[in-house]
Specification:
Elements: E1 8-9, H1 15-25, H2 30-35, H3 39-54, H4 56-60, E2 63-66, E3 71-76, H5 84-94, H6 97-113, E4 119-127, H7 136-151, E5 154-159, H8 165-170, E6 174-175, E7 188-192
Parallel strand pairs: 4-5
Antiparallel strand pairs: 1-2, 2-3, 3-4, 5-7, 6-7
Helix pairs in contact: 1-3, 3-5
């Protein structure tokens, strides 16, 4: 696969910077800030959450960055999954008791919507807020979706921010449901068939 200008796989030396770009990009995300409304708790829990959700992308060379790590996307290849045990542990120690049950239902909904057929999974994509609107997210998305199309494999994600849904739709993703429980913000599962 030919690299788009400026898109690279994040190597080990770029890992921490990549994670912090995602932390910054999700700082105003409805679902993440519902989970961890306190800034200190958000900063501490989100770094662990990112590693559990998308950390395996680093192992597979599918953690992509662009613009000097101003934007990052963690893609999990077909057959590679999040670290559910670590996610369970993070949720158990970091969530407020009054939302724990709601989050358990949200995670169950995520499991129910996750496709069974082989697919590329995008658990996290973010742009440093200082660099939003520069086309960096589009560059990352086009790069990864080119691989999906070359392999003839679908792509799947859950949008945790309703404002981002049009961005995903422009890249061919279609809404396949909604996940929400109790006081949780909505999470929107989306699928894109290979072109």
């Amino acid at each position: 696969m030919t690299a788009e200008p400026g898109v690279t796989s994040a190597n080990a030396s770029m890992r921490a910077r990549t994670v912090w770009t995602i932390v910054l990009g999700f700082a105003a995300d409805p679902l993440m800030r519902w989970s961890w409304p306190d800034p200190g708790q958000y900063l501490g829990s989100m770094t662990q959450f990112i590693r559990a959700c998308g950390g395996r992308a680093f192992e597979h060379g599918t953690a992509y960055v662009t613009g000097e790590s101003r934007a990052a996307a963690l893609w999990l290849p077909p057959g590679v999954h999040q670290d559910e045990d670590t996610l369970d542990a993070i949720m158990a120690v970091s969530l407020r008791p009054e939302i724990s049950e709601h989050m358990a239902h949200v995670r169950q909904g995520m499991a129910e919507h996750h496709p069974s057929e082989p697919h590329w999974y995008l658990p996290l994509i973010a742009v440093d807020p200082n660099w939003v609107g520069q086309g960096l997210g589009t560059l990352l998305m086009k790069y990864a979706l080119q691989r999906c199309d070359e392999q003839g494999v679908a792509a799947y994600l859950e949008s945790s921010n309703p404002e981002n849904i049009p961005f995903y739709q422009r890249h061919g993703f279609k809404i396949i449901g909604e996940i929400q429980h109790g006081c949780s913000p909505p999470l929107t599962p989306m699928m894109r068939k290979a072109n």
